[in-house]
């Protein structure tokens, strides 16, 4: 996100929270986002903000919670994928992922990956 984007994208986000969002970027995990933004709002509000934010997934480094941002990935799938590391490429990760999620979920999965 840049500039005023968060104000127009995330409902009821005030100027102070925009500053906080930018202060901590780039986020390396969704857990970091939860921890840093959770300093200013309660867990319910963090979960609400999380609906508008995602942390790019590094197929060889992201933690379980960050992997779970990809539709169809639950704890079990995330743990299985983490155990299969390292992946030679994002395509290799997507090939492994195809065993666990449906074609529709897989088609959007590449957009969650760090380039």
Choose one word for the global shape: elongated
> Number of domains in the coordinates?
2
DSSP strand (E) fraction? under 5%
| Integer-rounded radius of gyration | 15 Å
CA-CA gap between termini:
17 Å
Largest sheet: none
- What class do helices, strands and sheet pairing give? mainly alpha
Overall average pLDDT: 90
Percent of residues in helices comes to: 40-55%
Number of helices: 8
The string of secondary-structure elements, in order, is: HHHHHHHH
Characterize the quaternary organization of these chains: single chain
Number of strands: 0
Low-confidence parts, pLDDT < 50 over ≥5 residues? none
Describe the structure.
The chain has about 120 residues and is mainly alpha-helical. It has two domains: about 5-50, no CATH class; about 65-110, no CATH class. It contains eight helices and no strands. The protein has helices spanning about 5-10, 15-25, 30-35, 45-50, 65, 75-85, 90-95, 105-110.
Itemize the secondary structure elements and their pairings:
Elements (H helix, E strand, L loop, with lengths): L4 H5 L5 H10 L5 H8 L5 H8 L13 H4 L7 H9 L6 H8 L5 H7 L6
Short description:
By secondary structure, the protein is mainly alpha-helical. The chain has helices spanning 5-9, 15-24, 30-37, 43-50, 64-67, 75-83, 90-97, 103-109.
Keywords:
115 residues, mainly alpha, elongated
